[in-house]
């Protein structure tokens, strides 16, 4: 009987196919054909998930852009509603007018 994962398509005891094993190509000696097959498998897996990843990236980008525009718009809106400086300027004008009246009245 062969070792588990050594080419047996189906495990005789459980009837299930063996799971893929992780291989570290820097530690294990692999043939150029095995390395090429690993690259092809990685490329196929990457291309398979590319549309989903692209859609997710577009949605994330649009969400972040909408948030930035909302903050920018709210900032302009709140600044345009702000009357704090106008009130200070009115008070300063009134104080100057009172000071001029006192100076000319004495």
TrEMBL record:
It is a single-pass membrane protein. InterPro entries: Coa3, Coa3_CC. Keywords: Membrane, Mitochondrion, Mitochondrion inner membrane, Transmembrane, Transmembrane helix. This is Cytochrome c oxidase assembly factor 3. It comes from the Eukaryota. It is found in: Mitochondrion membrane. GO terms for cellular component: mitochondrial inner membrane. GO terms for biological process: mitochondrial respiratory chain complex IV assembly. Residues 45-91 form the Cytochrome c oxidase assembly factor 3 mitochondrial coiled-coil domain. Component of 250-400 kDa complexes called cytochrome oxidase assembly intermediates or COA complexes. Belongs to the COA3 family. The chain crosses the membrane at residues 58-77. It holds the Pfam family Coa3_cc.
């Amino acid at each position: 009987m062969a070792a588990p994962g050594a080419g047996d398509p189906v495990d005789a005891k459980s009837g299930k196919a063996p799971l893929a094993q992780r291989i570290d190509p820097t530690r294990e000696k692999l043939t150029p054909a095995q390395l090429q097959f690993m690259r092809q498998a990685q490329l196929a897996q990457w291309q398979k998930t590319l549309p989903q990843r692209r859609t997710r990236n577009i949605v994330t980008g649009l969400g972040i852009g909408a948030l930035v525009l909302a903050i920018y718009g709210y900032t302009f809106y709140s600044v345009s509603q702000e009357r704090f400086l106008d009130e200070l300027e009115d008070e300063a004008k009134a104080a100057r007018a009172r000071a001029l009246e006192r100076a000319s009245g004495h």
